[in-house]
Amino acid sequence: MKSGLLLVAIMLACAPLATPQDDHSVAAFIESARAATTKYQDRSVAIADGYRQIGSDFPAMGEHWINIGLLFDGKFDPAQPEVLTYAIISGKPRLLGVAYVLPLLPGEFAPDWPASKEAWHDHFRTLEDETVQPQHHVAGQGGDAPRLTMLHAWIWLANPAGMFAADNWAVPYFRLGIEPPQDAPDTAARALSLVSGGAGYFSASIHATVPLTSTERRKVDAAFARSRGAVGALVRGPSTATLTPSELQNLSAVWTGLWKEIDASVSPKTRASLKRVPTR
User: Fold this and answer.
1) In the 8-state DSSP scheme, what is residue 78?
2) Residue 40: half-sphere exposure toward Cβ, Cα within 13 Å
3) Cα–Cα distance, 176 to 143 (Å, whole number)
4) Nearest Cα to Cα of residue 100 among 42, 167, 50, 33
5) How far is CA 228 from CA 195, 237, 257, in A?
6) CA-CA distance, 274 to 208, in Å (whole number)?
């Protein structure tokens, strides 16, 4: 199968979607999902059951591991998530949550359980677009066209934005062994992610959005390097198991300053295009 093949091609043989759960409470959903996926804390068990990594390691999502066999069954079952999300913590994979993916044909819609239909987001671009930066972060609705609809559920790592929000900005804290603070700005978490793989992701997002000249590329890369160093200095040492309000403010300032430096490093035309980067 070519990487650019439209996702709609994989839907045509799918069975009608079904939701076998009788108790449609959120509590019942969480109980069922956790009971079924406890074994996947050991990722080797997930691999044995048919899960394989697809796409990149996203700063606020981690890695997506998908079971194609479950995708093709066309069912929504809390105990059988099509996707498991992992992050590497201290050199070991840790299960963060699950995601459910349903193929929908015209006239079909996402379930309104365990969250509202609006909590599901559609993927309707090519396979190539949907597994590279930054398109995965462009959530949306595919209208009534053939599409895949997806719901994240953060059942193993609490999400400050809510159980079913797509991005979980507690992940950068978790990667670094820092307690996620309550009501912290996302900008602080985005800055933290620069020292745990996020710098490469955000840089790739920029390059995927707009081509840079060689001079612009050097300046942007230098801006990321300086910001990554600034974040590293802020979180170095054992005292950073928790962060003070002042430290969070400083992290946010690093992120804001990074984008100011990037905008100042490129032409006005490029700067206008960079406004479309969804992760800035």
Assistant:
1) T
2) 30
3) 39
4) 33
5) 6, 16, 12
6) 10
Residue 23 pLDDT exceeds 90: no
| pLDDT cut 90: percent of the chain above it | 58
User: pTM of the full predicted structure?
Assistant: 0.84
Q: Bridge-partner residues for 75, per DSSP?
A: none
- Residue 20, pLDDT score: 54
Q: Which helix (H) or strand (E) holds 92?
A: strand 92-104
The H or E element spanning position 96 is: strand 92-104
Q: Give me 157's structure tokens.
A: 């790592």
Q: Bridge-partner residues for 152, per DSSP?
A: 99
Chain-centroid distance, C-alpha 26: 22
Residue bearing tokens 């400083």: 250
CA distance 194 to 184: 17
Using only the alpha carbons of the chain, give its radius of gyration.
Answer: 20
Give residue 276's identity as a one-letter amino acid code. Answer: R
Is residue 165 pLDDT above 90, yes or no? yes
DSSP class of residue 121 equals E
Q: Do the Cβ atoms of 64 and 83 come closer than 8 Å?
A: yes
Q: In whole angstroms, give the CA distance from residue 136 to residue 133.
A: 6
CA 126 centroid distance within chain: 18
Q: Which two tokens stand for residue 210?
A: 């707009």
CA distance 90 to 191: 19
CB-based contacts of 31: which residues, under 8 Å, 6+ apart?
none
- For tokens 């009608």, what's the residue? 16
In the block, which residue shows the tokens 């956790």? 34
